[in-house]
Design a protein that fits this description.
CATH architecture of one domain in chain B: Orthogonal Bundle
Oligomer: heterodimer
Number of domains of chain A: 2
Helix content of chain A: over 70%
Helix content of chain B: 55-70%
Strand content of chain B: under 5%
CATH topology of one domain in chain B: MetI-like fold
Strand content of chain A: under 5%
Number of helices of chain B: 16
Number of strands of chain B: 4
Number of strands of chain A: 0
Strand order of the largest sheet of chain B: 1-2-3-4
CATH class of one domain in chain B: Mainly Alpha
Number of helices of chain A: 13
Shape of chain B: globular
Shape of chain A: globular
Radius of gyration of chain B: 26 Å
Largest sheet of chain A: none
Order of helices and strands of chain A: HHHHHHHHHHHHH
């Protein structure tokens, strides 16, 4: 009995210790972001609550990050919306209909999960220029479509899995009532697979929001997302830890809040990709 | 039609899908209206076409362009265009030859190889230990799991920035150096071929591992650690899902048979998690080879080319200096990289195509 209690204590002790170590990087960034830079340079861990300040956030915002926020939201929300719309349509066909080349198209879509973005990166800029999607606000449309194309594998993989779980009897009932395929999708499959759609939306949001490479490469300075803004802020030669840390928290916050609010869906969505197969 | 009766529906989503479908597709199922309702090839095309159009224009065609343009000499100021012969400066295999004889490529390749080995090991190792410990703990498990899963939502750019604080060479700012200083552990550590400098320059000059024919730059290790921190949550989630389906009786009966906790892990838990382990491993391998963000933010491949990886190379060659006509060579690097990934990832991809029996 005593040995048992010892094991349990050791288990919780080491888990707590590991968790604390795991949180060190986040705590570091958070602490530096809310302390005056003078305190940071004397060890942020000596800082006290009385020194708390939001000046770093104000400065990071006014010294450039503000202009990256709108592009980040436009690109992310746009990509999620287009992926949901086109992905749901296609996933219905993959899950519920038969057509020729179904296997081939599905396989092609899945390749986006393993092939690196770098394979489309180099000719993409001239190609978008040719399509007229490389200037002004048209850039948003360009990068949104690129994100949609590159996320198509995940979209179809996840959504068709969720759509497949909808009981056939319900669809048949809708069919007997004269519902078209579009009607079955709209009134039966989508409502029932809503949790799955939310899962996909969150994962896609996190994925697109966190992209650096495409935003850095395809967009001009006025349309780049926050991740690029943060990368530009980060320069070892400019000792501005306070601004960089505040910027990193700002970049991290939207996906993190989304995760905390909808944790259940996020984990569920990853299960769909992780456990099966 | 008849063939589709014999084969499991291939492109129809994974998992529980097969059994549901089987019911509707048995040969005894009424044909006529029912079948016409389910199939309907034209509707299928109509539903798939919008996504496939975007996919073709913004993925397939760029891929084709990448492959084709890798046989030409061109730069981004004067891009190669399939339909404009004046832009064709044919190079044959020169881009590939130059790439394969470029020391920078092999240097980046060696670093990527280190990523390929170390990153999946770290991710699988850490997340397996944590998932099993959390599973044992039961109470507070949600809190512990959240701690390990949260960094997953953090962009790798931000993760790189955040870890740069931890690694900051100034012992008044960087925690790692502060701890080492407090423990009086700053100096150099030479163990056999390992030459580790704990003087605080983690992202500049932390030493090397001498392999005889090649000096592995340890700076990569510190970038990999940061990436593993951000990625381990995926493993924790996947393993937790696997453990949730582990029957308690199996563990209990092993205990009754006299298995200690470690033996239970070895003989019951690890075999049960074989499939999730394979998935996490493969996804980590893919991730390791694609890496761009975190290296770009933490070291930009430096110092010198010490931490350049294959994922960084095409970008550097094509975009860092827009005037250089290196885009063809950059495309060649991307093609080589993708070929490796497709070879490594193909079995995984095949496993994602649905089968009748899942798991």
């Amino acid at each position: 009995m005593r040995r048992n209690r010892l094991t349990v204590t050791a288990l919780y002790g080491s888990l707590t210790a590991a968790s604390l170590v795991w949180m060190v990087p986040m705590v570091t960034a958070l602490a530096i972001s809310v302390l005056p830079i003078g305190q940071t340079r004397n060890g942020w861990w000596h800082g006290g609550l009385s020194q708390l300040t939001f000046a770093n956030y104000r400065d990071a915002w006014s010294q450039g990050l503000a202009s990256y926020v709108v592009p980040s939201f436009v690109i992310t929300l746009g990509s999620v919306a287009v992926s949901l719309l086109l992905g749901a349509l296609a996933s219905y066909a993959f899950a519920r209909l038969e057509f020729r080349f179904k296997r081939l198209t599905y396989f092609l879509l899945l390749t986006t999960m393993i092939v690196p973005v770098q394979i489309i990166l180099i000719p993409l800029l001239p190609w978008l220029r040719l399509l007229g999607l490389a200037q002004g606000n048209a850039q948003y449309l360009g990068i949104i479509l690129v994100h949609t194309a590159f996320g198509a594998g995940w979209a179809v993989f996840m959504m068709s899995a969720f759509f497949a779980d909808v009981p056939e009897e319900l669809l048949e009932a809708a069919r007997l009532d004269g519902a078209s395929h579009l009607g079955q999708l709209r009134y039966v499959v989508l409502p029932l697979a809503l949790p799955g759609l939310v899962s996909f939306a969150i994962i896609d949001f996190v994925f697109v929001w966190n992209d650096l490479l495409l935003g850095l490469t395809l967009l001009d300075r006025d349309h780049q997302p926050l991740t690029v803004g943060l990368a530009n802020l980060q320069s070892p030669h400019l000792a501005q830890e306070n601004l960089v840390s505040a910027g990193s928290i700002m970049v991290v916050l939207p996906p993190l809040l989304l995760f905390i609010a909808l944790n259940r869906f996020y984990v569920r969505g990853l299960f769909a990709g992780g456990v099966k197969g | 039609m008849t063939t589709s009766l014999n084969k499991p529906p291939l492109a129809s989503g994974p998992g529980s899908f097969g059994d549901r479908r089987g019911g509707g597709r048995t040969p005894t199922a009424p044909g006529g209206t029912r079948r016409a309702g389910k199939r309907g090839g034209r509707t299928g095309y109509a539903f798939v076409t919008p996504l496939m159009a975007v996919f073709a224009l913004f993925y397939l065609w760029p891929v084709v362009q990448s492959v084709l343009s890798s046989f030409f000499t061109w730069g981004l100021l004067r891009p190669w265009n399939l339909f404009d012969r004046s832009t064709w400066q044919f190079a044959g295999l020169a881009n590939y030859r130059r790439t394969l004889s470029d020391p920078d490529f092999w240097h980046a390749g060696a670093n990527s190889l280190l990523w390929l080995v170390l990153f999946p090991l770290l991710v699988v190792g850490i997340s397996l230990v944590m998932a099993v410990a959390i599973w044992h703990a039961r109470r507070w498990s949600v809190v512990f799991r959240t701690v390990f899963v949260l960094p997953m939502t953090i962009s790798l750019a931000a993760a790189g920035v955040i870890w740069s604080f931890v690694y900051n060479p100034d012992a008044h700012i960087g925690v790692l150096n502060a701890v080492l200083k407090a423990l009086h552990m700053q100096g150099t550590l030479d163990v056999g071929p390992l030459h580790l400098k704990t003087t605080g320059q983690w992202l500049a000059d932390p030493g090397t591992l001498n392999l005889g024919f090649y000096d592995l730059r340890l700076v990569n290790v510190f970038v990999i650690i940061a990436a593993a921190w951000a990625f381990a949550g995926y493993g924790v989630i996947t393993f937790s899902a696997g453990l949730a389906s582990l029957p308690q009786e199996l563990v209990d009966s092993a205990r009754v048979d006299g298995c200690g906790p470690l033996q239970v892990v070895r003989h019951v838990i690890v075999p049960h998690l074989r499939q999730p382990m394979r998935i996490v491993f493969v996804v980590s391998v893919i991730f390791a080879l694609r890496t761009f963000d975190i290296v770009y933010v933490m070291t930009s491949g430096g110092p010198g080319t010490d931490s350049t990886v294959l994922g960084l190379l095409p970008w550097q060659e094509a975009f860092a200096f827009l005037t250089s006509p290196q885009a063809g060579q950059a495309a060649a690097v991307a093609v080589l990289m993708s070929a490796v990934l497709i070879l490594l990832g193909f079995p995984y991809l095949k496993s994602m195509l649905p089968r009748k029996e899942s798991r």
